[in-house]
Design goal:
- The chain is α+β, with helices and mostly antiparallel strands.
- The chain has two domains: 5-225, Zn peptidases (Aminopeptidase); 242-321, OB fold (Dihydrolipoamide Acetyltransferase, E2P), CATH 2.40.50.100.
- It contains six helices and 20 strands.
- It has helices at residues 55-67, 85-90, 115-126, 159-166, 184-190, 208-225; strands spanning 5-6, 9-10, 16-22, 29-36, 39-48, 74-80, 133-138, 144-146, 149-153, 173-177, 195-199, 238-246, 251-255, 262-263, 268-273, 279-284, 289-295, 299-300, 305-312, 320-321.
- Strands 3, 4, 5, 6, 7, 8, 9, 10, 11, 12, 14, 17, 19 and 20 form a 14-stranded mixed beta sheet that branches. A four-stranded antiparallel beta sheet has the order 16-15-13-18, with no helix packed on it. Strands 1-2 form a two-stranded antiparallel ribbon.
Length: 323
């Protein structure tokens, strides 16, 4: 893609631009970095902080914005290290502070909507539409435990290219998602931009090891794309379909498996009790699978996330689609 300007800035080879995206009719100012390579090539977008308490990706994106050098790039790298800044500064976890919406459920946004809608619209128009490839960095939120894995969208125009990108991610599992709406990387994939989402880190924490692993994956993908010199290494992985079960009650949640554990159909996965200790619901596995992520807080909210698991491609499941 031949891009001459982004977010009002001319893309001059060898330059680095650090600025804020001003979202129309809001007070939001979202940081971004445009690293314009000295040599021609494709443009990659890296985003983090769409869910603002998912800190591994945020820190990895900040560090990458300081470490990647324009003189070494064949093409451009756009970095959006903290998409939901107001949520980050008000500790709202998954939601935009001003309207309580989950930013990753409103793309491509609406210029006439609420704050989250306007934010998603601005990000989509300024950055996602101008990318040749897209990497979205996520983690487990403050109440979510998870194992590292990655998503790509199946049956999409850019599926083959996204599969090549995901092969560069050093995780054991990947999910072939069927969710085609409302998420940033999902919509990008539908619009023809090869896109993946990397999950690493959990419970609103971050470690040096996890940050370095995210950075290594991004660099490896950039090598595969030809933006950084060198060959991108490939990592074999098991491919899964993802299924989720939301909580049928509000109360206290007691999981009985750990993320990363495999289980058999009929195994107990956890139970919800009321505040007197009475069992309200027992979660039994309807199929064989592996636990990808789950609520790990004592409190659980009706209709909120409880269990997400994967089954290898070719297996059947009775749970609702969650990806």
């Amino acid at each position: 893609m031949d891009i001459r300007s982004v977010a009002g800035h001319e893309l001059i080879p060898g330059s680095v631009i650090r600025d804020y995206l001003c979202v129309d009719k809001t007070e939001l100012r979202v940081p971004y970095i445009l690293i314009c390579g000295e040599y021609p090539g494709p443009t990659a977008l890296i985003s983090a902080g769409i869910h603002n308490a998912e800190y591994v990706g945020i820190q990895a994106a900040i560090e990458l914005s300081c470490e990647l050098e324009a003189r070494c790039l064949h093409g451009n790298v756009f970095i959006l290290p903290l998409a939901n800044r107001s949520g980050f500064e008000n500790r709202t976890m998954s939601t935009v502070f001003e309207d309580g919406k989950n930013l990753n459920r409103v793309f491509p946004g609406d210029p006439n909507g609420t704050v989250a809608d306007r934010l998603a619209h601005s990000i989509f128009e300024a950055f996602i539409k101008n990318a040749d490839a897209y990497i979205d960095l996520h983690s487990g939120d403050g109440y979510e435990a998870l194992i590292p894995y990655a998503y790509y969208l199946g049956d999409a125009p850019a599926e083959a290219a996204a599969r090549d990108m995901i092969s560069c991610v050093d995780v054991k599992y990947c999910v072939r998602s069927r969710c085609r709406t409302k998420g940033a990387y999902n919509l990008a994939s539908v619009r023809g931009v090869p896109s993946i989402l990397i999950e690493r880190g959990q419970l609103g924490l971050f470690s040096r090891e996890e940050v370095e692993a995210d950075k290594a994956d991004v660099r490896n993908i950039l090598r595969h794309l030809g933006i950084l010199e060198g060959e991108g290494s490939r990592h074999p992985k098991k491919e899964l379909l993802e299924y989720s079960d939301d909580a049928p009650y509000t109360g206290c949640w007691y999981p009985e498996k750990k993320v990363g554990q495999c289980f058999r159909k009929g195994d107990r996965l956890g139970e919800i009790r009321d505040y007197f200790g009475k069992i309200l619901f027992t979660e039994l596995a309807p199929d064989d699978g592996i636990l990808l992520h789950q609520c790990s807080s004592l409190n659980i909210i009706q209709g909120g996330p409880m269990i997400t698991y994967g089954v290898e491609i070719g297996s059947d499941s009775h749970w609702t689609d969650g990806g």
